[in-house]
Amino acid sequence: MSNVNKTGKTAEFTAPGLKDEAASKTIKLLDDRLVALIDLQLTLKHIHWNVVGPNFIGVHEMLDPQVDSVREMTDTIAERIATLGGVPFGTPKSIVDRRRWEDYSVGRGLVKEHLVALDKVYDGVNSDHREALEKLADLDPVSEDMLTGQLAELEQYQWFVRAHIESESGELKR
């Protein structure tokens, strides 16, 4: 990331009407979300490959559309970072270096084990998306709107996951 200055911007421009300071703060928030979503799409694919047991096929087939959707979200965020004058970094080492959470720990595992772990992943991603939204409200309404739409999809995906680990009374079986 040697060509990025300390504000996260590299270009001498940003979106018209957006101040450089707001653009730099927005880029930083979006970069964190980019890392989280790249990590999420890889985790989803890992689960897709490694889930076994009862309900395998339903979970296996549920995950690919989530992978595709999250991949589109990362592309949208990366392009927004570039639009604001930043550089979206998506190389494996740069992602690992910027990640603030532990790696997904389940290898080959039963459906319930993976879905309980995935629910926790979605807890983190969705909570952090919501926190970023609060900050973006004062910085950049376009980026805020973009993340709002993504959060709606991410929360629905978490609901899909929870439907597999929920009791009939609504309790999550963790």
Automatic annotation (TrEMBL):
SUPFAM superfamilies: Ferritin-like
Residues covered by the Ferritin/DPS domain: 27-166
CDD domains (UniProt xref): DPS (cd01043)
PROSITE patterns hit by this protein: DPS_1
Gene3D superfamilies: 1.20.1260.10
Gene Ontology molecular function: any one: ferric iron binding
Pfam (any one): Ferritin
Family statement drawn from the similarity comment of this UniProt entry: Belongs to the Dps family.
UniProt xrefs under NCBIfam families: PRK09448.1
Protein name, per record: DNA starvation/stationary phase protection protein Dps
Organism from which the protein derives: Pseudidiomarina halophila
